[in-house]
Amino acid sequence: MAVRPRSPRRAVLRSGAAVTAVAVLLVAGGLVAAHRIHRLQPPPVVRTSLAASRTVPGTPPVLPWPPTGQAAVAVPALGIALTSGPEVPVPIASLTKMTTAVVVLRDHPVAPGSDGPSLTVTAADVAVYQGDLSKDESTVAVRVGEVLTERQALEGLLTQSANNLAYALAVWDAGSQAAFVTKMNALATTLGMTESHYTDASGFAATSVSSAADCLKMAVAGMAIPTFAEVVSLTSVTLPVVGTVPNIVTQIGSDGVIGIKSGFTAQAGGCMVLAADREVGGRRVLAIAAVLGQPVPPAVVVAAPVAPQSAGSATGVGSTTTTTIPYIPDPLRYAGPAAEALVSAAEAGATPVVVAVPGGTVARAVTIWGGAGHSVAVVTTAGATLLAWPGQAVRSVPVVHVPLGARRGESVGSVRYVLGLQSVASRLRLAAPLPEPNWWWRLVHG
Hints:
CATH architecture of the largest domain: 3-Layer(aba) Sandwich
Oligomer: single chain
């Protein structure tokens, strides 16, 4: 059989098809190779090496609890709130006035340094003053028609512990003392004061009761109101009738003491809430202590003037008569030092604690390729300190995100250290470039 000669045209076509096929294969292979080389690798796995919390080494301070009554101390910044033992509701005398002031300031806010609205003294107010004076209650003299600003009334209430002004503020705020007392008890419930119940606005009634820990809760609520904190820190005040008079809490203004309130009745004994703001480790630290039911010195009988009880004079400062009354020279002789000792010990127990050092490892960023894990340390960029008592736990909250291709020194998040109301943070960085596979490994292992 004769062989037909190959057509040059067909040979060219076949040769072109082969070249095309090879070219397609080369392009496809190139695309696959490019895909393998440039394909994104799995993101690094971050493995935190920092414990969720760490205990500050050492032994907590021993607090000088008073041998009688009950006491509590708090250092809000450190999250510390301790009591001398199991607590029961007891009479708290004029510490009740802290609650009166907080209710009034929440209902009628006054900016620091401002006077607020005015109260006009009525004949009924003078009668209350005269009645309180005759029973040897703490008072501030008032006259009918006298105008007191809210600020002045609060100054008399908190620095002079004036029972008559507690009543006047209660009526001014709520229309009656009974309605105001309802507000006081509602506030106590809101603050979680489960051992507190009020029956009057001044605390003269022995049925107005609380505990040392509850008194601290109210004190903290009060100190959070700038005007309350401002008033209780005053060493003296000037009022229309009595003129300039010193704060009856004599500790205020010395050794960092900035308030707050004292109280005394025969049923309550000596009561004191003190707050001090002092420097510890280069930081200001506020500590508050409450002591209740402290002993008082023996009473002595003295002659004392008594204002006329007839509202007809309506002055409250006119002619007087004389009577004999039992008098205690310093009913806070033991309560004041007991509260001061607790505040000082609580603040002295706070020490600076290093929670982070520059370059400290917080985590490791890990990539896995080539049959092995490759990791780089995630480290802090700066140190950080907190104040703490030994035995307290410092929480660590790291937030880390390491992107692909992260370079040495690149910021990859932060770690926050928390204790009580304190919170400090340190930025995080990579200690070295994040290892990545080379192009040949990617091509072969794609």
